[in-house]
Amino acid sequence: MPIENWSDNILVVDVQDDPAFTDDLNALIEELDVRKDVDVVLNFAGVSYLNSSNIAKLLKARKKLVSARRRLVLCGISTNVWGLFLVTGLDKVFDFADNVATGLTGVQIDSEE
Known about the structure:
The chain has 4 helices and 5 strands. The chain is α/β, with parallel strands linked by helices. It has a single domain, classed as STAS domain (Transcription Regulator spoIIAA).
């Protein structure tokens, strides 16, 4: 499973193109139903495209995290996928980082405040 417990309260999820993307996000959403105390860093390095179903799952995961006052950071976004976030306006909805290390640093700094 691509979900890794990076620390007690941070999950790192390596996502891939469909059909794995759907399975990975479903597993993450199930995990978030059980654990309300985690921040999530999603590594998009293996994703070259998104469809509307993928976006809906991302929004569902974000909603669960925001309602629990936790963070979702997307990182490693390819140029094609970034273009989709820009065109849809989702670049203003999600938090982004260049890579996993930067995403983890941002989440840790925010949790210490």
